[in-house]
Amino acid sequence: MFHVVDTISVSLLKTFVKKKAEKIILVNKIKKIFLDSRKAYGSPRITAALNSSAHIASQKRVKKLMKQNSIVAISYKKFKTKPKHSNDYIEQNLIKDLKVDVPNQI
Three-state SS across 2-59? Predict the structure, then answer.
């Protein structure tokens, strides 16, 4: 009776160790992809990168592992050429070719 229980507990321990090792490998791959992307990729892009390689993982699992390991993507803002206030931009264009000869002409 004890022999069967010992065998089951050893097999459970082996599967636990195997899953733990797979989790560590997956986290290392996630970190590598994350750092290669200059910390810009979130869980959807990392999942796509993992699935395109040999390792398949769901987005839910990748998101969970990223949260557990404090991996957060940085969102970059787009470069804007216009000033914040559009009125100033319009006034600058209107005044651009104007020549002032007398005070208070504008």
Answer: HHHHHHHHHHHHHHHHHHHHHHHHHHHHHHHHHHHCCCCCCHHHHHHHHHHCCCCCCH
Burial of 80 (0-12, 13-18, 19+ CB in 10 A): exposed
Instruction: Please tell me the distance from the alpha carbon of residue 50 to that of residue 30, in angstroms, as a whole number.
Output: 8
How far, in Å, are 42, 53, 84, 93 from residue 77 at the CA level? 15, 29, 14, 26
97: Cβ contacts below 8 Å, ≥ 6 apart: none
Contact 4, 17 (CB under 8 A): no
Structure tokens at 28: 């290392």
pTM: 0.65
Q: State the chain's mean pLDDT as an integer.
A: 82
Residue 63 has pLDDT above 60, yes or no: yes
Of residues 98 and 20, more confidence is placed in 20
